[in-house]
Amino acid sequence: MNIEFQPSGFEKGSYLNVGAQWLWRPFPSFAFEYGDPIRVRLMSDKNPDQFVSFESQEQFGTTVRNLARAGAAQITNLRASFATVDASLRAWRREKDRFAYHLGVAYGLTNRAREAREHFGAARVKDPEHEWQRADNRMIDELNELVGDSEAFRARITKIIQNERDTLKLVRAPNLDLPR
Question: Where are the domains of the chain?
């Protein structure tokens, strides 16, 4: 889970972004793959706003505490949405085109090769224009080949996760407990 208090380039204040990121998909930085900016309803506002302006230290301190509480609640909701493989699959299937890669990995980890291959096929970029898209396609093809070999697939996903942890300068996970 990622949480970010994001400043504005135009005025003093902050946005709050909360989202989930799965480290089994290489990405060079933290990302908000699933989630939305937090909207906070101030006592004087009729509509929630994404941006909290700095007007005074007292006002901003109170508002940022409310923003942090809303962020913590969103983290709790996201953790519940992705607490199990089945819960994750339900969430990702709502936007299956966007989350085809994650669906492929989850199905692959749970030994559902047919579904994994179907979603990996959907995750491929059809006419890649950029090197990163070609690299994604090569990785998807590699995973698609490994789907039938549960241990090899799990080993490759573990390696991807550990590489991502290194890239993001996170502590290495000694024993990853991937779902089955």
Answer: 2-81, 85-167
